[in-house]
Amino acid sequence: xxxLKIIVCVKQVPAQTDVKMDQEKGTLIRxxxxxxxxxxxxxxxxxxxxxxxxxxxxxxxxSMGPPQAGDALREAIAMGCDNAILLTDKKFAGADTxxxxxxxxxxxxxxxxxxxxxxxxxxxxxxxxxxxxxxxxELGIPFIGYIRKIIDLKEKSISLERVLDDYYEIxxxxxxxxxxxxxxxxxxxxxxxxxxxxxxxxxxxxxxxxDLGGKKERYGTEGSPTEVIKIFPPPARGKGEIIEGKxxxxxxxxxxxxxxxxxx
Amino acid sequence: MKKIRVIKDKCTGCGLCVxxxxxxxxxxxxxxxxxSEDCKLCGVCVSECPxxxxxxxxxxxxxxxxxxxxxxxxxxxKDGIVSPVVYELIGKGKELAKETGEELxxxxxxxxxxxxxxxxxxxxxxxxxxxxxxxLKKFRDDPxxxxxxxxxxxxxxxIFLIGGTAIGRSIAPRIxxxxxxxxxxxxxxxxxxxxxxxxxxxxxxxxxxxxATIICSNNRPQMATVRYKIMKPAEKIxxxxxxxxxxxxxxxxxxDRVEVKKMEKIEGDLNIIEAEIIVSGGNGLSSDKGFxxxxxxxxxxxxxxxxxxxxxxxxxxxxxxxVGLSGKTVRPRIxxxxxISGSAQHLAGMGRSDFIVAINNDPSAPIFGTADIGxxxxxxxxxxxLIKNIKNNTFIKK
Lengths: 264, 398
What we know:
The complex is a heterodimer of chains A (about 260) and B (about 400). With about 260 residues, chain A is an alpha/beta fold. Chain A has 7 helices and 15 strands. Chain A has one domain: Rossmann fold, CATH 3.40.50. By secondary structure, chain B is α/β, with parallel strands linked by helices. Chain B folds into 3 domains: about 55 residues, Alpha-Beta Plaits (2-Layer Sandwich), CATH 3.30.70; about 180 residues, HUPs (Rossmann fold); about 120 residues, TPP-binding domain (Rossmann fold, 3-Layer(aba) Sandwich), CATH 3.40.50.1220. In chain B, helix 7 runs parallel beside helix 11. The longest helix of chain B is centred in the last third of the chain and has 19 residues.
């Protein structure tokens, strides 16, 4: 391999996952919500930076979002990524996973040559986990999900360990490839002060629809087959019985309940 | 396709829309509301604006969808055994097919799976399409995706449901991308809109804090992955008549860029998704030693051990035990949460258990809001009492 090139996809998400709904108004209570890079993406960033440290090369970071999503990219640069690209355009708004994957694929094609594309398992807001595999299909390259270990990297292939629910597999894939990285893979680093300073001043390339080209009708709402028609709070579970008192009495009451359920 | 815009003449810059927007996508700039790119077009601001200054524009260009018929289920098999989630999909699929007046189909891939087809029919499936071949013995991303893409182009179902397993989640987005249709992840509710027969797909988002209903009105098939252990499994319908269709595929066309070198089942009592009884430990255990006690309680009940994210992050127990948004979703008959406060993320993973027990020394812990029965106290005192009682009871039974 001449020079290893990894691209990591990152999304900026609301920092507080404990967003609650206002039951009366049916809207989200979002006081104190800040934005951050999607926590699941941290494992992809860390894995990419580790590969770079081992094999050389460079790591690009790409995101689609509003102009302020650049903050998430700076977090990635602080962790060791080299170049940041933000895909932003009014026309990208309202994208579902299909349109998001198309937009990211357009941005990745514009970057040019690459060996590995890494994504987080899913995001903490949308929570779909669909963009990674969709992206692979858009780019016409293989997809390997749920990576927990990268075993070896060769000129034209990569061997990986992944988890499929109750199975684990060792697979070897041709490059380039899209992978999603689980939290078992690594422990994301805390950036050094020096890197944070570099990140603060790092340039972020901003590409809009004109820069990307492609089919206009595949971006944003127009390119999104799915449509959210309603949001509502999850049904509350009825409040249960609270038992206080001596441990031996509490235990007896619970055992009675478990007997009713034919558990004991 | 929808578009949203602010009517500048009507906007007063009052900011009510800014407060109403669930996605933080509106700001006031120079006294006017400005909707940013990350707008999800949910329309909440439209109804909230007292001046009618925000409008949603709908461009109607209806596609002809009449060629798409039938509800199709992906009959995931592992080692020649039909995955349990498939029976849940069949149960739900049958309901949906009844509503739309269409047939229920199932497609299975594997080696030696033809014999499974007859059995699937007995659960109410009208047609089972079988790809039975040596090269499909184990799941492989490329061949499975490619065969299914070709298959869907041929049979054109109106709905395609896939189990939310690692395999299902890996291939479904590739199929929907290839067909350029919609895919809704991890649905917990599915029903047919009586008016237009569209599939209403409901799923949790934002860590389970909100529910969203999603439609795919202008593309087919309407694809959804479905969360495991949510839908009721189908029951056998005695004497049900269906058809088994053996499918052929062009082996040359099945490119495989990935080679599986090794595949092994993860050993131990780790399959917490299937477990009927789960005893979970969290931060309240204070140390890894607590899991010895949790394990003992789980064993005495014939159950398995789960954990909260905190316990896993602290290294007290391994990740496959983790229950919650970033771990596994479980739906056991009994879930006993010990020393788990009950974050929204944890509740998202176990909130649908049949019966939830919480043991926690903090009476204000959110877990008590979800538990059917809550014991307030020291788990190190309560659990040994429980174990003692369970042993006594078992003894009496014998």
